[in-house]
Amino acid sequence: MMQDCVFCRIVNRQLPSTVVYEDDKVMAFNDINPVAPIHVIIIPKEHIASVNDLTDNNASVMGDIHLAAKKIAEKLGVADKGYRLINNCGPDAGQTVFHLHYHLIAGVKLGAKII
Ligand code: 5GP
Ligand code: ZN
């Protein structure tokens, strides 16, 4: 747990969020500033700053995140219609929260560029 990390604080319920999925490894909640009708943030509960910080020891969480994404899409009724998973890594990609996360965006026909 990183005390100054906003997503660690959400995991520990020190900050409120609307949780849409949770298991022992992963948590997902609605983005506070949605860019589409469905905009969910999926994170590992373990603090990993970005894709750059994946290692042989923690990379299995990427599978966990993708399985969570599949379940969330089914739960929210967009599995067949479609959804986009986006990861921003580093400043040029626009990463603002340095706790690894995927955006699950859906509920609208997405163009070639969304973020
Ligand atoms: P990034 O730009 O790092 O890929 O995305 C960070 C995302 O986290 C942004 O879409 C932003 O709206 C969202 N976000 C930042 N702070 C909070 C928060 O305190 N609660 C929630 N639910 N989302 C947040
Ligand atoms: Zn964190």
SSE order and pairing:
Elements: H1 6-11, E1 19-22, E2 26-30, E3 38-44, H2 60-75, E4 83-86, E5 102-106
Bound molecules: guanosine-5'-monophosphate (5GP) and zinc ion.
The site of guanosine-5'-monophosphate (5GP) has 14 residues, from strand 2.
Describe, in short, the structure shown.
This protein is an alpha+beta fold. It is built from two helices and five strands; from the N terminus they run H-E-E-E-H-E-E.
Describe the 3D structure.
- The chain starts with 5 loop residues before the first helix and ends in a 9-residue tail after the last strand.
- It has 115 residues and is α+β, with helices and mostly antiparallel strands.
- The radius of gyration is 14 Å and the shape is globular.
- The chain has one domain: HIT-like (HIT family, subunit A, 2-Layer Sandwich).
- It is built from two helices and five strands.
- Guanosine-5'-monophosphate binds next to strand 2.
What fraction strand? 15-25%
General shape: globular
CATH superfamily annotation: HIT-like
Order of helices and strands: HEEEHEE
Uncertain spans, ≥5 residues at pLDDT below 50? Answer: none
Q: Briefly note the structural class of the backbone.
A: alpha+beta
Report on the biggest sheet: 5 strands, antiparallel
Mean pLDDT: 96
Number of domains: 1
Helix content: 10-25%
- Kindly report how far apart the N and C termini lie: 28 Å
Spatial order of strands in the largest sheet: 1-2-3-5-4
| Individual helix count | 2
Give the second-level CATH assignment, the architecture: 2-Layer Sandwich
Indicate the CATH topology: HIT family, subunit A
Would you report the number of β strands? 5
